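Review this chain:
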Amino acid sequence: MNAPNRFELFVLEDGEKPVEVSEDTKIPNAATFKIVKQDHTLGNMIRAQVLSMPQVLFAGYKVPHPLHPYFLLKIQTDGTMTPQAVLEQACTKLIATISSLEAKFKREFSFKTTEGNVPEDPYGTTGAGAQSWGTGKDYLDF
């Protein structure tokens, strides 16, 4: 089969750098970053975070081939910051955002376990006025 082993998609080899930077010679204040062993998930999150910064004129990413586990991220700034500094600041903000989301999720999950009086129903039909399955009209009933 053509697909690489699963572990090769996310485990860095000995001496392999996770990020490679190449300055763009044709576009001022631009650089292309090759981020290894990552895919669309991280690429889109970083792109969105970079685009939210006012110093950025352009940010985009692409995955050249689905069997190769890396993506290319291109950033162009207005010259007040370097693309490397923008990427570093965006990653710091992204880590803070994800940490905040994790803390909020854990807090809400702890509230769920302390309430305890709501019966568990995998179909989401708890509470007053909820229909149980098999009774009443279904959405397929005309």
In short: The first strand starts at residue 19 and ends at 23. The helical segments are 40-51, 83-115. The chain has a mean pLDDT of 84.
